[in-house]
Structure formats: structure tokens, C-alpha cells
Amino acid sequence: MGILIVSLGFAVTLSVLKQRDVIIQAGHEHSEETLKLIGMFIQDSVVKNDYASVEQFILQWGMQHDDITELKAVSKNGFVLAHYVSKETARFPYHISHEVEMFNKAYIKLEMTHDLASVKDLIARTIIRNISALIIFALAVGIILWYTLRRVALVPMGNMIERINRLNETLEERVDARTKELNQKNIELENEVSVRIRMENAARESEEKYRHLYDNAPDMYHTLDKNGIVLECNETECRMLGYEKREIVGRPITEFMTKKSRHLLKNQVEKIRANKIESLENLEREFVRKDGSVLPVSLNLFAEYDAGGELLKLNVILRDITLQKMMEEELIKMEKLESLGILAGGIAHDFNNLLTSIVGNVAIAKMRSDPEGKAYGRLIEINKAVLRAKDLTQQLLTFAKGGAPVKQVANLRELIEDSICFATRGSNVACDLHIDDDLWFVEVDIGQIHQVLNNLVINAQQAMPEGGTINVSAENIITERDEVYPLEAGKYIRISVTDYGTGISQQHLEKIFDPFFTTKERGSGLGLATAFSIVKRHDGHLTVKSKTNIGTTFIVYLPATFKRGAVVPVPEEKKLEGKGKILLMDDEIFVRDAVGEMLTSMGYSVKYANDGIAAIDLFMNEAKNGDSFDAVIMDLTIQGGMGGKEAVTKLLEFDPTARVIVASGYSNDGVMSSYKSYGFKGVLLKPFDIHTLNNVLRMVLADK
Amino acid sequence: MKKTLFRLLMFFLILCPFNTLHADHVLTLGVHPYLQASEILEKFSPLADYLGRQFGHTIDIRISKDYKEHINRIGRNDVDIAYMGPASYVSLVDRYGKKPILARLEVKGFPTFQGMIVAAKNSPVKTLEDLAGKRMAFGDPNSTMSHLVPRYVLRQSGVDITRLSKHAFINNHHNVALGVLMGDYDAGAVKEETYYHYKDRGLRVLASTPRISEHLFVTSTSLNNETVSQLREILVGLKETGEGRKILSSIKGSVTGMVPAVDGDYENLRVILKTLAQEGITP
Predict the structure, then answer these.
(1) Is A85 on the interface with B (CB under 8 A)?
(2) What's A313's domain CATH number?
(3) Which residues pair with B29 in a beta bridge?
(4) CA–CA gap between residue A32 and residue A509 (Å, rounded)
(5) Beta-carbon contacts of residue B264 (< 8 Å; ≥ 6 apart)
(6) Does residue A462 share a domain with residue A426?
């Protein structure tokens, strides 16, 4: 059927194309004949030179014929004699030209545009007619073929398809039923899988959670088998000991302990096994880190037994007690210092009294001897020796009681520079100083800190007998809590004194701050102990790091202050002259004599009392007689009697204007550092020389 | 209308170029064949109709086959009224004596006109002297401006047709202008109106003629004076009315009126024509 229609279509197309050509050809011929006819009409006029007629004829012809869109008569010289142009545009233009000839000579050329639209319309009509005929024919043939096919093939085929469809439907029903069954099973299976996955996830999450807690616990955990082999340990333990987990697991735990702890543990495990002990707590043991350092721990142990009572494994919890140990050691050290201090303090006090007497007598002796004489030189030497003895007692006292420092706000830059220069002057040691430009202020007892620095530099110097360089640095630091034990968190100044000398052995390092411990042949064993004590009293800290044959660094931490203090004026050397009535109270007669002599020599009149009560009585009596004392000098401590501290209170009750000066060999006593709050107007540290006595008296009496 | 005119034109061109209208009317208006007959009919019908209405009957237009016949017809009083060119009038008076002049045309306000000797714009001919040995076209031998006055001007310039290689009379002014433009002739003689008509298509002036009095209407001497006076009055009064102005512009678009004229107005032409006649050139 399709082939038939295509064939017919092809035939009709060919026929239409042929007819189209014929029609167009006929149209062209018609156009040419028309133009020739026009030529014939104008020929005579052209010959007669009647050009106007030709022009008029051309225009009229154009107007008369709708199928002509342009008609033109052109002379041989190109002059357009007549030109007609239609208002309409040609739909199917055909351009032709014709030359009007007479006696074989061209006179005029005619040009025409003929609109063959009518021809085009005719072609269109022909095509429509032919296509209509083709459709009618194809329909007729199609109907005939359809009926024939239906009878011969379609009906039997339809029956067959119907049977196949029925069979197909039955099959689909079975497949549907089976598919539903399978889907149901599949859903059940999926649910089961989903439940399992959830359970597994929950188990895994729980395991991970436990593992996380286990690994990140602050304490160390490990599990041992009955032979002490590590079955498992947490990350904290690995981190604390500095090992990888694989380096610990599978090895006897004793390999990670000190010899002593190893032995102890073995004994304890035996004991556990024998007595079926379930747990042991707070056992102090020492582990050894990979770098060789010792880690003190508190050990808790839990045993697991099988049904037959056989030891299966041991679960062990270890807690780092380094800090606790340090605190304990610190406490012991402090206690040790305390007890030694009391002893040293007593000796120092007596010593100071003796020295006061010596100083006083030397001063008097110097005043009464000829400076050019031999005795005078000896007296100066005695004075120097006494001053060294004074330093020694001072140190002893400072160490002994720590001494309440007489603090003032200061920038340590100058102090450090002075101390270092002073200590290294004339030696074969150079000093490399690095001090922060904006070093914070500190509130310190300048004398004491000077003593600390002096000690440290002298130590460094002595560590390098061959000479070398000492590095001293001072810088601002901010520490966190426990960053520098036992300092509180806060702002500090850190002073480091480093030498590159022989270093200190680990064995010695532990005892270095103990009093009377020294490795030097002529050392007192008080230098570092005193320095330690001073720094402590300043709420600071002193530590040491050292490696044999490499060098040693002492580090001083002092709390920074943001107060600004007044500059302490340097006391002016005054004339050794005075005027007034002084009451001197001291239980030691040689002190009364020496000091009394100094006062008298300066021009004062002196009366004496041996204790507080006697002093008060004398003061009151003199006052009643109208001859009051201008000043009172009282010893702070009176053996078996009223001391200065008590006496001043009572004296001031009687006469609030009384001027009382406290004198004591216990320079570190709290009363000495804050004498004003006890009512004293001045302070004299025994032993004192005549100049100090003069200055203090002048200052106190100036207030009168 | 267009078809009718076209068929009429075809009739004249192919079968009978010279039409003679039969005269059964009281008054006839004769016109010389200065244009295609159809055009002449178209141009003069409004006037004929108007005059007819004024006199109570139709006026017949008669177009002579040539100028000579036209003169003879007037001279013999074969037509009652005649429109004629100035040369024809001079010829008429010369041959038949004076005829009453009704009025002469006033074109764009002037009762006189002139002729032009023209050439194509791209022609090598620049002066009249250049015409020696060239081809020249004239209209009708009797035409005032397409032959006679230009011929006088040519002679005055020393170029007569004897010095031309060819000359031809090709019937009317349009043919002359188109013949020059088509290149069939090197120059031609036309009235100024025709020159301006074709100027833009490529014409150029070589020389102008003296101005002479315009075309005129004359009457047969057989008409009584009253009729003549009436006619004169009507013609001169045409420009006063809207209809009259339409009639005038129908004759020629540029005609603005008709003015009275006397024979003396044509004296300069008469002198030209006499001069030509002495040279043996007669209309």
C-alpha cells in the first residue's frame, strides 16, 4: 500500500513538474509575443520620428495591461523615451527585451517585465488537481486492499492474538502473586538487617565511647596477666611513659619500673596470689620513662580470679604523683630549714650582741686613738673583721628565719647590674647580660635580693675556675598554675644565671639548697640555703638545672608588682654631734657600755635600764621631775624580762610623744621590718656603728 | 475613459491620421494640429462646451490636417472661430486680409512667448555655429516656434539649413524635443513651454528667439459684430470665474487668461516672416 502511494506520488510529481515547465514556457512565449506586438505598433511611428506617439502608446499599453509591471522604450543612445512602472510588484516576474527593427537597423529597444502570476496560479491549480486525484486514487486502492487483507489475514490473526493475550494474562497473574510474596520476604529481610545494623552500630559506639574514656582518662590503666605481662594499656600510660603502645603490650610490667619498685611489686603479687586478695590501694611505686626519668605513681590494683580461685589477671590504675612528691619534699625541706633556723637564730642573736659591743668599743677606741698611730690600723682591721662577722650572722639569721624582708618597690635592672659587676669585678669571668627593656617592677628587700644575686654569681664564678662567661638574663614572664611549681599563676620576673662550668651531679643537686651542705672546701653551706630562703620569703621561687661538665642554671622567679615606690634616699653622713637626754635599755651590760660610750662621745647625756620595766620607771620619774628623755633606745628582746615590744606600748600610754628606737640583733624579726606599726620611731640593727647611731638619732629627734 | 481615448488614438495612428469632423452646427471652432488630435479635443472641449452653453447650442471642434489647411479654412470662413498660432495669423492676414481678433492668450501673465533652439546636454554642439554639418529637427513648416522664428534666428546667425547635413519636419514640438534626446537629431526648434517640459530629461538651450505675441482666437468675418463682441467679451472674461480659469488651464496649464489683441501686436513676427519670405522661406 505504502509503496503504491509512493510510486503514485512520484509519478504525479513528475507529471506536475512537466506540466509546470510547459505552462511556464507558454507564459514566456506569450510575453514575447506581446512585446513583439508592441514593437509592431510603434514601428511606423518610430520610422516617422513620431516619438511622442511612441511615448504615449507605451504608457497607455502599460496602463491597459495589469500583467505588465514595467515597460520601457530605450533609444540606441540610452535615452529612455518612455517608461511605464506599475504600482504593483510582480509576483512571478519575467523580464524580456525586444529590439524594434526597420530595414535591419535597430531604432529602439523595448524592455518589459511581465508578471506571470496567472501562470503561477495555473501551476498551483494543476498541482492541487493532481494531488487530489492521487489521494482519491490512493484511498480507493487502500479500501480495496484493506477489505482483502481483512478477509485473508487479519481476522485469523486477531483470533490467534486473543488466545495469546489470554495465556499472557494468566502468566502475569502468577508472576504478580509470586512477586508479592518475594517483596514481603524482602521487606522482612531488610527489617532484620536494619535491626542488626542498628545493634552493631550501638555496640560499636559504646565500644568507641568506652575506648575513648579509657584512652583519655587522666590516670594510667593497664591490665596484666597472672605473670605480670601487659595485656593492654591506655594511651595516657603510653604518653606518660613515652612509649608506643606496641612497646608496652606483651612485655613484663616490671621492665618499666625502678629496681626497688620492681622488687616490691613482685612480692606484692605473690602475696595477692597466696591470700586471694582482691585489691590493693595507694601503693607508691616508681616507673621509669623511656627517657630514663623516674615517674612516681600511686598504684591501685584489682585482681580477677577464675571459678577455681586461680589468679586470671590484674587491673592496675596508676596516678602520677610527681607534684605530690615535690610538695612533700618541699615541706620536708622547709621543716628542716625551720628547725635549723631556730638553732642558728639563737646563736646569731648572741653573736650580734657581742658584735655590737665590739663595734661600739672599736668606734670609741678609734675616736680616742691617733689615726697616725699603729693601734689605729689594727682597729680598722678589727672593724672589718667584725663587719664580716656581721654579714655572717646576718646570713645566718636570714636563712634561719627567712627574715621578714623590708620591701620596697624597685626596678631590678640596676640591682642586677650592680650585683653582677660587683661579684665579677677583678675576676677572670666575663658576664653577658640580657635584661628586658621594659622589665616589670618588683617589691623586694633590696639588700636581700642583692645577697641572692651575689651568691648565685659567686657560685657560677667558682664553677668556672678557668674563667669563662656567665650568662645573666632577666625577663618578664606570665605563668599558668602548676607551670612552675610551686608558683601561683601570675606575672613574674625570671632571672637566670648560667655558667658553663663543671656542673652539679644529680646526687648533689637534690641537696644543694640544704643548709650547711657544701662541696667547696671553704664554703659555709649557707649561701644557696639563704638565697632559697630569701626568695621564698618574697613569694618567689629558686630552682636549678644542671648537667655535669655542661653547666648549671639557677633561675629566680620574683612576683612582679605594678605599684610605684618612692626612691629611698641615701642617708646623708651627719656630723657625730648630738644634744639631748637618751635612755638606753639593754640587758647586756657590754652593749649598754659600748653604746652609752658612743652616745656620750657624741654629746648626749645617757641613762641606762636593763629591762623594760626599769626603763619605764626611769622614764616616768624623770618626766615627773620635769626632765624628760629626748629619746629611748630599747633592745627588742630581753632575756627573762620585758622586751622593747611590750615596753614601748606602755611607755607610749604614759607619754604618746615619746621617741623610742628599737635595737635588735634579730634583724629579721617582724617588729624590725615594721617597727612603726609597733610605735617605734626608728630602728637600729645590731651591730651598728656610731654613724648609724648618729643618723637614726638625728632623724628621730628632728621630728621633735 | 482611458480605454476609449486609447482606442481613439489607435484609430488615428493606424487607420486615419488626419481626421475631419463633419460640420452640422451653427458654430465651429477650428484648431490647428499642434498636438495629437485626441489631446486637442480634450483641451478645447471645455471651451467649446462653455461657448455652446452661452449661445444655446453645441460648438463643433474641427482639427485641420495641417497648418495650411487650417489657414485656408479660416480664410474661407469655413470655421466660425479659430485658434491659431501667430505665424498662421500673419499668413492668414497676408493671404485673406484681416479677420477680427477675439483675444490672445496670456501665459503666466505674459501675452508673448519665445522659442528655443535646443540640443542634448551631452552633445558637442555648444553654439549655433557648431550646427554646421549637423542634423536638425523642426516641427511643422508652418509652426511659428518650431520652424519659422527659429529659422529666422538661424539665418541671422549665418547658419541656414543648407549648411546642415540634414533637417526634417517631424510634425510637432514634442517630436522635436524627443528626436534630439534620442540622438536622431543634433538640435531642434521648440517653443519655450516644450523646452521646459523636457529640460530635466536632458535638453539644453543653444539660442532663444525674440518674444512674439501669443496664440490667438479669430473669428470668421461672416459672424455679425454682436456675436463677435459677445465672443470677445466671453473669452476675455474667462479668467474672472472659476469655471473660466478651468477652461483656460485646460487649453494649456500655464494659461492664466486672455487679453484683447490687435493686429499690430504681430508686427514683429510679420517682419520676420517677410524677411524669411524674401529668402524664399514661406510657411
Answers:
(1) no
(2) 3.30.450.20
(3) B61, B81
(4) 137
(5) none
(6) yes
Each residue of A30-40: b (16+ CB within 10 Å) or e? bbbebbeebbe
Place of cell 629611748: A632
Domains of chain B in sequence order: 9-110+215-263 (3.40.190.10), 115-209 (3.40.190.10)
Q: Does residue A13 belong to any structural domain of this protein?
A: yes
Q: Does residue A205 sit within a domain?
A: no
Q: Specify the residue for cell string 612516681.
A: A296
Q: How far is B152 from chain A (nearest CA, A)?
A: 24
Over residues A213-261, the pLDDT tens digits come to: 888 888 999 999 888 899 999 999 999 999 999 999 999 998 999 988 8
Based on the structure, what is the number of domains in chain A?
A: 4
Same domain, A45 and A188: yes
* CA A456/CA A458 separation, integer angstroms: 5
Cα(A27)–Cα(A92) distance, integer angstroms: 11
Q: Which of B172, B183, B201 sits opposite A77 (nearest CB)?
A: B183
The gap between the terminal CA atoms of chain B, to the nearest Å, is 37
Q: Between chains, do B179 and A49 touch, taking CB under 8 Å as contact?
A: yes
Residue A122 lies inside a defined structural domain of this protein: yes
What is the spatial distance between Cα B139 and Cα B152, in angstroms, rounded to a whole number?
A: 15
Domain of residue A470, residue span: 402-561
Query: Of A56, A63, A75, which is closest to B183 when you measure between CB atoms?
Result: A75
Calculate Rg over the CA atoms of chain B. 19
Residue pair A661/A684 in contact by the 8 Å Cβ criterion: yes
Question: What predicted TM-score, i.e. pTM, was given to this entire model?
Answer: 0.40
Per-residue pLDDT band for A459 (boundaries 50, 70, 90) equals confident
CATH number at residue A637: 3.40.50.2300
